[in-house]
Design goal:
By secondary structure, the protein is mainly beta. Helices cover 13% and strands 55% of the residues.
């Protein structure tokens, strides 16, 4: 009976990890409402898939913009600053990219949305593990 209880607990833990909610950020960037999702919560060292949804003030999806993801870790003693960029690809109503956090710690992420000659951006921080 004890083995069955342990087995059930392990299955529940695995199911919880498998269905963990994405890392989400919802913010305004200029005139846009932006929702960013990273497929791992917390983000991990290595590859992470990022999805960006951009909506205008009326709530309609914006699919004619150029969206870039820039992510960086500031310089620390004995280590230079790290700066990376990723272009997104439009898939349906979402802009998707893969970002790679090269080490654990605090990362600054900037989403830049360019449309009709104007650029709007939003900033947030993540802690990669």
């Amino acid at each position: 009976m004890k083995k069955l209880a342990v087995f059930t607990l392990i299955l529940l833990l695995i199911a919880g990890i498998a269905y963990a909610k994405d890392y989400e950020v919802k913010k305004k960037a200029g005139e846009y409402n932006v929702e960013v999702k990273i497929d791992k919560n917390p983000p991990i060292v290595g590859d992470n898939n990022i999805t960006v949804e951009v909506k205008d003030a009326s709530g309609k999806y914006v699919t004619d913009a150029k969206v870039k993801v820039e992510y960086s870790m500031p310089a620390m003693p004995g280590m230079p600053a790290m700066n990376y960029k990723a272009d997104t690809v439009l898939s349906g109503n979402e802009y998707k990219a893969k970002i790679n956090f090269s080490m654990s710690g605090a990362w600054n992420v900037v989403i830049k949305i360019s449309r009709a000659g104007k650029t709007a951006s939003l900033k947030f921080n993540v802690d990669a593990r």
